[in-house]
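okkk here we go again. third time trying to get the pyridoxal-5'-phosphate bound version out, last two times i messed up the smiles copy paste (missing a bracket lol). double checked this time i swear
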Amino acid sequence: MTEPTQSIRTRLVQRSRPERGQRRVVNPPVYRASTVLYENIAALRATRAERAAGKRTFSYGTHGNPTTFALEDMIADLEGGYRTRLSGSGLAAIAFGLMPFLKPGDHCLITEAAYEPVRKFAQAFLTPWGVNCEIYKADGSDIEARFKPNTKLVYAEVPGSQTYEMLDLAALAAKTKPRGITLAVDNTWGSGYLYQPLNHGADVSMIAGTKHIVGHSDVLLGAVTTTKEAWGPVHEMHDAFGICISGDDAYLALRGVRTMAVRLPVHQATTLKICEWASNRPEIATILWPAWPNHPGHDIWKRDFKGACGLFSLEFKASQAKVDAFIDALHCFQIGASWGGYESLVNLTNVPAQRVVTDWSKRGPIVRFHAGLEDPADLIRDLEQAMRQLA
Ligand SMILES: *Cc1c(COP(=O)(O)O)cnc(C)c1O
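finally!!
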């Protein structure tokens, strides 16, 4: 059993394991279930009563099973939250984390630094459904002027996608709470281990478990975790839509998350080495990474985060065509979406189109990197040889 006094590093290893019995394996076995069988009618009635009272029960496949429950408990613990619901992708987690707090006629504020598909969700669903969506500045500095009597939700991402703008979440919560506005945060970068938005005033936290929790780039996963007060609507919305994940995916995520406390410091140390190297390169205009001392909002990161991950961006002093050739010349950094796995990745960004409040149009091309678990010397050698394309 895990003790509350144990560190999260220990809990990641020790918790959510099969109950002590005669013989046990170390991870909960995979349950593959739609049907759950009951011994008799009394047992069926008892289970239904438990569910009606809001208790988590292994009663039907869509309600979850012992494998998915073990993962829910692990993520709730990581987030410092009350309870967690799981979904088949990070994007689905965001959609089902926001919808419970919005209805037609409401006003909702979305950060300009949001993961791009969230903007699409707002355009394709929230707006036609009758929710008035408005974009606010990534650092939250313009938010007070945007509040309306019908503002019901503020959606933040800390740090922001692609350029990692920091936001003082506690200061934002001090403005949303008295107005009864729900504060929801995309916490994929910090994933609970590095950052706990619920402990800085947020009501709802969403993680793309696809990234650091799974850690191996082979499973899609989303998780919504809330405070006790915000739990009811989230739980109900997930039930209403039948949102669930398979025992197989939960098993793989649980296996991946065991090593999170070992992986993340390696991603951070490698990224620091790369940034130190990049700071001496004339081809690089800006290093975008919250743990870098010159990064805007670095002090907020230092105050609120336990560490940094391997997702960072570099702004280049070169044409996009030359930067394309640079990316094509990389070998260790492979071109691909997603991040948070063990391998290094590189991807294009479209920051000027995304930031509708802040003007990024005068900036150089921005490339997003994920520093994996390879030897940092090899990664730097790879970047160094590709730099020849910029000459
Ligand atoms: C990847 C990502 C998501 C979406 O996760 P998927 O599982 O790919 O849907 C959401 N937010 C952030 C910040 C991400 O990086």
